[in-house]
Write a sequence for this structure.
């Protein structure tokens, strides 16, 4: 497994893709697949079945992993 300079909680800048230019916080790092989950980026709608917890079901927006090469660490809280 490779070591990455980006850790959970770091501020990053998305440098490619639909969310290019966004600055956001890293929620999760997946070292086996070299991916990161970034808050508010690469959102998809997932269908949710009706259950006791969610009686109506419906859709929920969820962040999906993106390649670690698509983000750049930003120093400070800019």
């Amino acid at each position: 497994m490779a070591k990455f300079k980006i850790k959970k909680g770091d501020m990053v800048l998305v440098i490619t893709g639909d969310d290019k230019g966004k600055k956001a916080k890293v929620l999760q790092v997946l070292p086996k697949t070299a991916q990161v989950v970034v808050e508010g980026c690469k959102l998809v709608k997932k269908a949710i079945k009706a259950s006791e917890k969610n009686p109506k079901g419906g859709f929920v927006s969820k962040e999906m992993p993106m390649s670690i090469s698509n983000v750049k660490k930003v120093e400070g809280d800019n």
Notes: The mean pLDDT is 92. The chain has one domain: 10-73.
